[in-house]
Amino acid sequence: MSQISINERNTPEQEIGIMKRKISENGTEVVSNGTTKKHKNDVEYFLSYADVELHRTMIEDQKRTNTYRDAIMKGAEKWIKGKVVADVGCGTGILSMFCAQAGASKVYAIEASDIGLHAKKLVEANNFNDVITVLIGKAEDLELPEKVDVIVSEWMGYMLLYETMLPSVLHVRDRYLKSGGKMFPERAVLHMALGETQWITKYEESAFDFWVSLQHLYALDMSILADHAVTKYKDTVHVHMVAQEDIMSFPTVVCDLDLYSVKAEDLAEITHEFSLSSMGNRCLNSLVLWFDVMFPEGVKLSTSPDEEDTHWQNTVLTLPDCRVKQDSLVKGTIKISQDDSYYRHLKLELEYSVDNQEMIRRHFKMDDNCVESDS
C-alpha cells in the first residue's frame, strides 16, 4: 500500500486525486464515476475536512485545544518523551506538534483529507521535520514503519459517536500500539439527562406565530404550515448548548468506552435502558446528551452543560411536552446505531414512558441535516 510522506512533493491536485483513488479502490461496489458506493460519501467527508475554517473552529475552542495540550504536557515525562506517537486524524498537525514539543522521538501524523498538505508545511515552518512525518491517506490503508508507544486522536463527533471516526483509531491501536502503550484519550463516556430546554418552546411559538400572521399581512391563510414547521423541528436532532438550569434529572451513562479494549463492532449498535427521575414540577420536552473523555494523568475534557461551552455543544432530542412532578419516573430504551445508507450518520430509536403511562416511540436520524442552533 502506498504512503505519502512529508518528504515527497505532489501538487495539491495530485494529492486530492491520490486520496480519491485510494478511497475508491478500497471499496467493493464501483459506481459509474469510479468511486465506490460504500465510500462515495467519504470523498465528500474528507474533502470537507480540507476547509481551513473548520480547523479554525476546532482550534479556537480553547477548552478542547488546551485540554489536549495539558494532557500531552502532563504526561510528557512518563508517556511522550523519547516515545513514538501516532496522531490519527491529525488535521493541521497541532497535536503532533504538541507531542514534538513534549519530547516525542517520532510522530506519525495521519490525515486522510487535503488539510494534510497544510500540516506538512506547518511542520516544516515549525522545524519539526526530523520528528514528524505526515502521512496522507486513510488510517486503514496506510502502513506505519514501526509500532508506536502512544496514540493521540481527537476523534469525537457530536454526541461522541457522530461521524464514526473511532473505528479508524481502533484500527491503528490493534495494528500498531505496543503492549502497554497509551491512548490519548483512554476512556469516553456518553451521558443523557431529562431536559426542559427553553429555546424549544420559544422556537415553536415563533414558528407557529409566523405562519398564522400571514393571514393579517397578505389576507392568505398559511396556518396549515404552522403545525408542519413545529413537527419538523421536533423530528430533528439539535446541536445546541443547554443551560445548566434546563437539566432536570441526574444523568444516566449511555455508554462507557474503554479505549484499550472496545472493538469497532461494539460501536455499530449501542442500546441502553434508562430510568431517570425528574427534579421539580416542570415541562419535560427533551433528552440532552453530552460526553466526557479522560486522558492519562487524570486530565478530563467534558462537554457537560455544567462546564464551559465547547464546539461540540450538547445534543438535544426533542420530546412531546409532558408535565412532570418531583420524582416522576421516565423509563425506557435508547438505541444508537450506524445508519444503513451511510455509516458515519446515526439512527436513534427511543422508547419511553412517564410514570408507567402509555409508551412513546421516537425515531431520529443524525446526519448532515441535524440542526446546529444559535444560542
From TrEMBL:
<dbReference type="GO" id="GO:0042054">
    <property type="term" value="F:histone methyltransferase activity"/>
</dbReference>
<protein>
    <recommendedName>
        <fullName>Protein arginine N-methyltransferase 6</fullName>
    </recommendedName>
</protein>
<feature type="domain" description="Methyltransferase">
    <location>
        <begin position="85"/>
        <end position="181"/>
    </location>
</feature>
<dbReference type="Pfam" id="PF13649">
    <property type="entry name" value="Methyltransf_25"/>
</dbReference>
<keyword id="KW-0949">S-adenosyl-L-methionine</keyword>
<feature type="domain" description="Protein arginine N-methyltransferase">
    <location>
        <begin position="187"/>
        <end position="357"/>
    </location>
</feature>
<dbReference type="Pfam" id="PF22528">
    <property type="entry name" value="PRMT_C"/>
</dbReference>
<dbReference type="GO" id="GO:0032259">
    <property type="term" value="P:methylation"/>
</dbReference>
<dbReference type="InterPro" id="IPR041698">
    <property type="entry name" value="Methyltransf_25"/>
</dbReference>
<dbReference type="InterPro" id="IPR025799">
    <property type="entry name" value="Arg_MeTrfase"/>
</dbReference>
<dbReference type="InterPro" id="IPR055135">
    <property type="entry name" value="PRMT_dom"/>
</dbReference>
<dbReference type="GO" id="GO:0016274">
    <property type="term" value="F:protein-arginine N-methyltransferase activity"/>
</dbReference>
<dbReference type="InterPro" id="IPR029063">
    <property type="entry name" value="SAM-dependent_MTases_sf"/>
</dbReference>
<keyword id="KW-0808">Transferase</keyword>
<keyword id="KW-0489">Methyltransferase</keyword>
